[in-house]
Amino acid sequence: MNTQKTILIVEDEKDIREALRDVLENNQYLVLEAKNGKEGVTAALEHHPDLILLDLLMPEMDGMAALTTIRSDVWGKDAPVIILTNLNANNEHLVADVVSHKPLYYLIKSDWNIGDVLKKIEETLNVSSEALTH
Amino acid sequence: MKNQKPLLIVGYALCLFFSVTQVHAATILSTHTYAWSDQVGYINFEHVTVEDDALAGYAWSANKGFIVFDPLLGGVANDGSGNLSGAAWGEQLGWIDFGNVNIDTDGVFSGTATGTLVGTLTFDCPTYCDVQTDWRAPASSTLSSSSGRISGSLVAQASSAFSENVPNTPFNSIPSQQSESSEELSVTKKSIELVFPNEPVETPALFDVISELLVSKVAPGDDLPVLVKLSNFGGNKRVDVLIAYSVITNHGVELYKTTETVAVETTANFVKKIHIPVTTAPSSYTIQTAITYEGQLVSATAQLPFTVERKILGLFQSSFYRYSAIAAVAAGLAWLFGYLWIRRRRNARLEPIDYSAIPRGERTFYEIISDTITQMRGRVGDEALTIAAQIPGLEIDHDSGRVLAITGPPAKIVATLVSEYETLLGKKVSFSFRKETAIKKE
Q: Does any CB of chain A come closer than 8 Å to the CB of residue B368?
């Protein structure tokens, strides 16, 4: 039985996206990539990943719009999402939108290194990277 | 017949004289040889002999060696009636006073002998402790005697009907030895008086000294208290005893000496404080107590080891280091326990607060605000509570940080709180949404 977890990275910044991909793949995750919200929605609804890492500020479709679309899907309404952005949450409307769509975390990129993000992912998926390695 | 009475009496006295000059030497019965000392245990009297005027030979203690009954000085005397006096000498026990020991008419020892080291020596205890001899007091012992072995007086009264009955009177047992003395014999018509010289014979003083240290360690410049016990086993005359106290190094060098004179009759116990010079080097030493007195033939000294050690803050150096180590360990443990307690308390403060009582629609904002406050409290301390308490529309508990009520727009409160914290930290702030399983009740 294949227990490999699938993670969808929706990130327009190539460096960040590839860095996340490398770390996750090194930890035995299957990684899907999307470079904007539109690609992200398509990939999510097609592959039903175990977790979505979602940036908010992206071209074509921003992250919040993408999340709204995903949540409207039967599968997507409970899909685990971690928002990973540089947009600070000091805006009342942003906060209201975030709360209404219930991501697991609202993480500021500059406040988190990739290792810490990996830990949050593992907590979320309830799988340790060591278990995957061995 | 009447004229013959004085002659009969004199003749009878002469018979008594010759009969009692015989020496009775006897041994200890082989089945009754052990006395008991409360300090050193059984003492075997097997090789002690009993004579009419003294005890001789030696007793044996398995723990303390020989006890000699006729040493050069002293010795144990027998008054001929079994009343013992004087002292025996134990090579490891010093003088043992037999003044309260008697041998009865059956040869059984009774009473107790005493000595500083032997304690109380008992001759007739209930179990395996009895000393008996085949020596018997001559019949003359039934006469009254007022003194010890070599002095005394005998006074006898004879009645007018004495002449024919002389052999049956107590006088037939008068020891000839006593009669041999320069007695005065006055014969009257109806009485005879035998008078022995009653001059007290002085026995030389025999002192034993025992010392005990009241402390075993002393600092340079302090006083070393020594308990001194002097015992005179000889005569009871008051004697001036010169006591010399010497501090001797391990190499036998006399470092310090002081003397004092004490007048002693029988025993004297006192505490002498020996001042240890401040220049004394820390090391092991011996305190020697030696006594000197007029007519002394046997030296008496006592030696005890003690240590000189410097003090630090009123404590001996070794104790200071030991207590310092204990204090350091105690301080380390106190710090460790304090640290663990603070950490546990901090962790307890950082645990999520349960808001399950809040309606589902509002609960998410309670949880986001509460967790954000808790997260910030872990980073900046209780200032996070102060900031949160100033947010309009938000009521929190000032101690726990628990959100009590949200009376304003919740999204705006979250945004304001995050903004305030970002200002405080100088960087953006993340927050999380709770999974149901992560919540712990308060």
A: yes
